[in-house]
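User: I'm writing a short report section on ligand binding and want a predicted complex to refer to. Could you take this sequence and iron/sulfur cluster and write out the structure as tokens? A short remark afterwards would be nice.
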Amino acid sequence: MSFIPSYRNISESEFKEKIQTLEDILSCCSLCPRNCHVNRIKGQKGYCRADANLFISSYGAHFGEEKILVGRCGSGTIFMTWCNLRCIFCQNYDISLQGIGEKISVEHCAEIMLHLQKIGCHNINFVTPTHYTPQIVKAIKIASEKGLNIPVVWNCGGYENTETIKILEGIIDIYMPDIKYSRIDTAEILSDAPDYFERCKSAVKEMFRQVGNIQIENGIARRGLLIRHLVLPCDFAGSEEIFNFIKNELSPETYVNIMAQYRPYGCLPVEINRRITRNEYLSVLEMARKTGLKNIIWDRILP
Ligand code: SF4
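Assistant: Sure. The structure tokens for the complex follow:
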């Protein structure tokens, strides 16, 4: 295999420096745009509810992710407990909002990564990693020293602090952020984050600067940016503005997965308290095509 993950190329001192910088942030947390400024080292908790301990809810070879991540042997997903976004319609609310999970050490996390590699997974896929950035980077370093040699996927909600993403340069090979909404009102109602799109655009541009378009080797993504966008009823997400941003400020070649699986959970405004229709999905898909995006991954299970 010719591909070498980025984290195997950075120096020991650079890795240590990044970990130190991230751990320092934990004592006055600004890992994400919530900027809670709580001291997580001392046990304080901010919006995400995570302190300095690492909690995961599950891990394993996952076959429901994008084909270029799954290949034949699966994507090695590690689902992190809690979330910095806490969308009110979250399908994984037991993990993200109720905190279901198990406390593990960074050493144990590294062992899990090595196990996933051993069973053949093509990558390590951290799901909702943002609020655990320091612990995850530490675990990657330990796993790398013990032979980890597959790319790490940063599978995040898109509400990221660009400064945090900058620190991940040279460690993460595949960024897979959501771009959920362009509309300020929607972001405020559904995720209590009216600045979502502005923050997301800035962070995703930084991700693209680091890794560029997806590079595929033997059918498997090795490096690059892959964006997910979930279609909402009544175009509540403001999809067209998102596609224009991707095409004009990133690249028309960007891989964009347009997803149809929205299901209403929780207490929702009446307009979106239903599943999307087939026509709503197809019209958003057409919108993406008309914008000029060339690498659209579309859902084969339509409503
Ligand atoms: S990671 Fe959590 S504590 Fe830190 S700023 Fe974000 S929401 Fe607040």
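A remark for your report: Residues 58 and 247 are 35 Å apart (CA to CA). The longest helix spans residues 196-211.
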